[in-house]
Amino acid sequence: MNLLNRLPAWVAQHVVALRTVLLLTVITGLAYPLALTAVAQVPGLRHAAEGSRVTGTDGRTAGSSLIGQSFQDAKGRPLPQYFQPRPSHAGDGYDASASGAGNLGPESVVDTLPLNGRPDSGRQSLLTQVCARSKAVGALEHVDGARPFCTADGVGAVLGVYRADGTSGAVTRVVSLNQACPARPFIARYHGVTVRCATPGADYGRAVAVPVRGDAPAHPRVPADAVTASASGLDPQISPAYAALQVPRVARERGMAAADVRRLVAHCTTGRALGFLGAPAVDVVELNLALDRTHPVKGTR
Amino acid sequence: MTYAWLQATLIVAVVVGLHVPLGDYMARALDGGRHHRAERALYRLCGVDPDREQNWRHYLTALLAFSAMSVAALFALFTLQGRLPWSTGHGGMPWRLALHTAVSFTTNTSWQNYAGESTTGHLAVMAGLGVQAFASAAVGVCAALALIRGLVRRGTDDLGNFWVDLIRTTVRVLMPLAVVCGVLLIALGVVQNLAGPETVTTVAGGRQTLLGGPVGSWEPLKLFSGDGGGVFNANSAHPFENPTALTNALEIVLMLLIPTAFLRTYGRMIGSLRQSWTLLAVVGILFALLLGAATWAQSVHGGTVTQAVGGAYEGTETRFGIPGSTLFGVSATGSADGAANASYDSFSSLGGGVLMAAMMLGEIAPGGVGSGLYGLLIAVMIAVFVGGLLVGRTPEYLRKRLGFAEMRYVVLYALVGPTAVLVCVALATATGNAQSSMGNPGPHGLAEAIYAYTSNVNSNGSAMAGFNGATDFHNLLMVAAMLVGRYLPMVFLLALAGRLARQQPGVVTAGTLQARGVNFVALVTAAALILALLNFLPALSLAPLAEGLA
Question: Which of A6-20, B13-27, B127-141, B227-241 has the lowest mean pLDDT?
């Protein structure tokens, strides 16, 4: 205190401030979190505090029931004997050290087409991501993967329309923006003008992007969560509808009765909390683990 | 839809129910009364005389000195991280990022230009972010307490003691709440450990690296302090931060709780609970308007992708559902918290616009910890001034005259936010730095940029995460935006508090505008809405409205 009294007031003020910051660091920055870590060791809290680990069929930790996993082979193809989770933007997919979302908006409809020989140079719009996933899931589950605003080849059905006076006037030229040549455009003519495929690298910035809904049913067979990525990229759950869609395939691959698979699905389904909070969901990690335990498939762990 | 409204009703009911005891407790704990022996020891260690009152200048300089030292301590911690224990293998941050992050957490903004899992170790989370979650929230409370004392006291220069207000808010209010909520969240599934990364063989035979961390101790702070930054990049969408629909509901309650309870504290301190219910009505109306608009936009309004998918599912977690994400989003932007359990970038165009509008209101529905109340009182004073002019009397509030000198500070306060947001967006756009950071083309990209600076200036920290703020330009401009947006209003606020405290109370006459009743609530609500609209309608119409109505 004596030293403080001899310092100029504004310096003394900052010394007090620094001492307070350091003191708060000790109390709130060390004592509090460490005490809570110690409390978290008591039985009942410990399982969650350690990360809700699940044990694999070999008795070793096989991940966390809270963190989604990838069920694909090394080439990125879905392993058919497993329930598939949602698409993921965490790293290369379900990378638990790189959580994150795709962050594309609801009007992200025009792709940057990859240049010839450089497949990484393009960037898919959110619409094309949705269309491509819907087509792939439809093919895997043997159902129609068609969706509104999607082409049959699984990209966004978006026309670049050139008009005589910029944004108005007669249509002069039409390009299917997301279909790279030599693809056949999803419709042949628009307002009497022949629709062309798109040339990668060409600038269609002056065209007006017109999404075309097409005649796909308003309620597609492939559920919404199967074609959209989660916010964390680590969502371990899928909707009951998407689980139901996958039951026949998994039953077939594992030689199980569909009813037995459905029973396991029901076992891994959580309803709405308190009856009305959140949404019903099926934990894919726990479900696939239960399948491996009860009906192992040769060649998997 | 039924589930959505049931969920909102439950959460609002819990918040309103809890705000009464918590607000009463805060009024008792924070103002007057004796110092505990342990607190006296803390004051001694800090070198503070707890019984010496400060005038507005001394209160302000103490607040600014504390904030400056906080930035310095965080900056040192982040840059030296690699040489400290519990860094879990992460090195120091580059200086621009360290400066941005230090200012971001000290100003209660918590905008993060980095992904948590690849940047901050356990020590940085605990002793860096954690300390400032407590302290920055407490600083907001301090400024609010000073303003309240300005309104209550008469003929004095004394506004209280900053250091006492700071320590009391931290140890009497925030720490007990943190312990209770931390244990609760861990019991409901949140992670709490000091383990390093662990690589496991997954069910299908692949590899996955699981992270741990002091998440359970961080999570309540993140939510109730108005902080909102994530241990992990995905914030409250990450299953380790927010594992179930139940934790989601609890997290929403925590975001709204203290700012709402502080309205009650205010009523207790000015001796008029009626006034706190009146302000709660204003906050409730604003929040209901925002939630109604966002729910409508998210469930009814369809963008192209939304129609292709069949709903606004992109960037939401299965366990929360769209209503759980929408309510979280509105609560995170209506309070100054800024946490996220969904990708706000992928919200419907108008839904994202509502979140932006919630911040543009100036963080008053219910706003930040402390800052929500003083922001609301500024809106009240503007309404009282306009109302006073309408009835032809000198505007008064709580028997304090709002003359030219007082209104000058009120108006200056109200101008800081909008001016800073628009100037920053203009600067970033004119130099091309906004465009190069946009994650989406067209109006949505502009929405990302406006959202970013609205969030930074208003100490929110919510993000449309497609926007890349991790450039030298944005790191430094955001530092300026956060400092100006947080502290310049506090300067005008404390100056106003000083003037009000010196006044002798006026006499209530029949002509005085009554600060209660339906008319008053309507007047304040309209003043807040019209101010925000006048300031931001052009910007909103260029970005979310242009995209959503095209």
Answer: A6-20
- Are residues A166 and A193 located together in one domain of the fold? yes
Question: Is residue A193 included in any domain, yes or no?
Answer: yes
Interface of A with B in 163-202 (CB under 8 A): none
DSSP letter, residue A185: P
Q: pLDDT band for position B413 (50/70/90)?
A: very high
What Å distances lie between residue B233 and B213, B228, B448, CA to CA?
13, 12, 17
Max CA distance (Å), chain A: 91
* Any domain includes A216: no
CA B212 distance to own-chain centroid: 27
Give whole-number Cα distances, B80 to A121, B90, B270, B472, in Å.
38, 10, 46, 20
List helix spans (H) across B80-123. 95-106, 122-123
**From the CA of A182, how many Å to the nearest CA of chain B?**
25
In a domain? residue A152: yes
Provide the chain A residues 68-127 that lie in CB contact (below 8 A) with chain B.
68-72, 79, 82, 86, 90, 94-110, 126-127
CB contact under 8 A, A99 and B234: yes
Q: Are A60 and B201 in contact (CB < 8 Å)?
A: yes
Contact B47, A15 (CB under 8 A): yes
First to last CA, chain B: 26
Cβ contact, residue pair A103, B465, below 8 Å: yes
Chosen for mutation from B203, B231, B350 (greatest number of chain A CBs closer than 10 Å) is: B203
Q: pLDDT digit string (tens) for B197-229?
A: 999 999 999 999 999 999 999 999 999 999 999
Domain that holds residue A129: 119-211
Cβ-based contacts of A234 with chain B (< 8 Å): 234, 238-239
Contacts A85 to B, Cβ<8 Å: none
> Are residues A253 and A182 both part of a single domain?
no
Is residue A189, in this structure, part of any structural domain at all? yes
Q: Is the pLDDT of residue B1 over 60?
A: yes
How far does Cα B543 stand from its chain's mean position? 23
| Triad B500, B136, B450: Cα angle to 5° | 90
Chain A contact for B4 (CB, 8 A cutoff): no
Q: Inform me whether the C-beta atom of residue A227 falls under 8 Å from chain B C-beta atoms.
A: yes
Last residue of a domain, one of A211, A239, A256: A211
ipTM value greater than 0.85: yes
pLDDT band (50, 70, 90) for residue A10: confident
Put simply, the answer to whether B204 touches A24 (Cβ < 8 Å) is no
Q: Which residues of B24-62 are buried (b: 16+ CB within 10 A; e: fewer)?
A: bbbbebbbeeeeeeebeebbeebbbebeeebbbebbbbb
